[in-house]
């Protein structure tokens, strides 16, 4: 045990014994009911500034368990009094996730306009347009491989056809297909942007999105990490001046990879019945099933979204 941990555990024990004296109870032997009340008081705090987080309460509990063990006692942390107290603290301290702002088609156009036309810029432009037009998660974007094969760490495939790009992605329920139609013009077309990147990066097979040399002129073999997508989105949002009326920290907090995935849903101007599963986790995904084959690219969501 490190010296700092030992000091923290010693302080935890001193704090607990003072609390016991104040409550008129004995710290030994350990009482699950007493421990449950103690950690509930820790989480409540005497005032808002002294309220402890769930992580800190659990760390204090670990300190008490160690201190009891040094005195020949065992603290059953799974006892229902303690477990229920921890569960209640977590319930009260759980904050709903802040919904990220969806990126609109106009936002995407403004974001890609900030990118240079070197190799790195071509890649990042393709990432933003493909991610938006496919309603993709950032992990799905960076795991894409070019046919005819998929690498072991990737698994998701992309095939460029005359009508657009066909993505085959691994989902929890099995494989699914996502169709990305061609845009109204080359400047806004996600498929054209992808073709430009693959051509100049000289990528025929393997990972679609890889790193580039420092001068941005040469494609490397290493697959991008999904964190690159998040950083790219935030930087492009700043450079494009999106929500410029807000402080920079607030603007950055509003946008993430989820903004790219949900952006398509907020931008399409077509009837919901024109394509399956507009709502829910499988938005815009064309699910492959055992019964007949539907016509691919029957609905072009790229154009419907304004690209």
Largest sheet: 5 strands, mixed
The CATH topology of the largest domain turns out to be hpI Integrase, Chain A
List the uncertain runs. Answer: 270-293
Mean pLDDT comes to 81
Number of helices: 12
Trace the largest sheet across and list its strands: 4-3-2-1-5
The helicity comes to: 40-55%
**CATH class term of the largest domain:** Mainly Alpha
* CA-based shape: elongated
From the N-terminal CA to the C-terminal CA, the straight-line distance is 59 Å
Structural class: alpha+beta
Bin the strand percentage.
5-15%
CATH architecture of the largest domain, please?
Orthogonal Bundle
How many structural domains can be distinguished in the coordinates? Answer: 2
* Rg, alpha carbons: 27 Å
- Strand-and-helix sequence, N→C? HHHHHHHEEEEHEEEHHHH
Q: Count the strands?
A: 7
Written account of the structure:
By secondary structure, the protein is of the alpha+beta class. It has two domains: 3-93, Orthogonal Bundle (DNA polymerase, domain 1), CATH 1.10.150.130; 105-304, hpI Integrase, Chain A (Orthogonal Bundle), CATH 1.10.443. It has twelve helices and seven strands. It has helices at residues 3-23, 32-44, 54-70, 80-93, 105-112, 119-134, 138-142, 190-201, 226-240, 248-254, 257-267, 301-304, and strands at 144-146, 156-160, 164-171, 174-181, 206-207, 210-212, 219-223. The strands form two sheets. A five-stranded mixed sheet has the order 4-3-2-1-5. The longest helix is centred in the first third of the chain and has 21 residues, at 3-23.
Short description:
With 307 residues, the protein is of the alpha+beta class. The chain is built from twelve helices and seven strands. The protein is 47% helix and 11% strand.
């Amino acid at each position: 045990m490190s010296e700092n941990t030992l000091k923290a555990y010693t302080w935890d024990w001193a704090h607990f014994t003072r609390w016991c004296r104040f409550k008129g109870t004995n710290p030994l032997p350990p009482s699950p009911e007493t421990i449950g009340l103690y950690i509930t008081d820790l989480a409540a705090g005497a005032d808002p500034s002294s309220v402890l987080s769930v992580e800190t309460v659990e760390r204090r509990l670990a300190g008490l368990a160690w201190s009891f063990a040094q005195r020949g006692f065992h603290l059953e942390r799974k006892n229902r009094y303690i477990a229920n107290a921890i569960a209640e603290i977590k319930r009260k301290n759980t904050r709903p996730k802040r919904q990220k702002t969806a990126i609109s088609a106009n936002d995407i156009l403004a974001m890609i306009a900030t990118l240079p036309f070197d190799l790195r810029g071509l890649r990042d432009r393709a990432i933003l347009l493909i991610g938006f037009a496919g309603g993709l998660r950032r992990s799905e974007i960076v795991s894409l491989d070019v046919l005819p094969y998929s690498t072991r760490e990737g698994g998701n495939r992309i095939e460029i056809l005359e009508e657009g790009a066909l993505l085959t992605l691994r989902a929890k329920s099995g494989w699914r297909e996502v169709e990305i139609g061609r845009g109204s013009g080359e400047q806004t077309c996600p498929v054209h942007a992808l073709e430009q990147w693959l051509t100049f990066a000289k990528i025929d097979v393997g990972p679609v999105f890889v790193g580039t040399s420092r001068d941005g002129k040469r494609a490397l073999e290493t697959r991008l990490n999904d964190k690159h997508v998040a950083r790219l989105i935030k930087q492009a949002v700043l450079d494009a001046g999106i929500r410029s009326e807000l402080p920079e920290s607030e603007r950055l907090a509003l946008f993430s990879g989820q903004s790219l995935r949900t952006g398509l849903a907020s931008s399409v101007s077509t009837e919901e019945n024109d394509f399956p599963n507009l709502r829910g986790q499988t938005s815009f995904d064309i699910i492959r099933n055992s019964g007949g084959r539907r016509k691919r690219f029957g609905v072009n969501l790229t154009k419907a979204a304004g690209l």
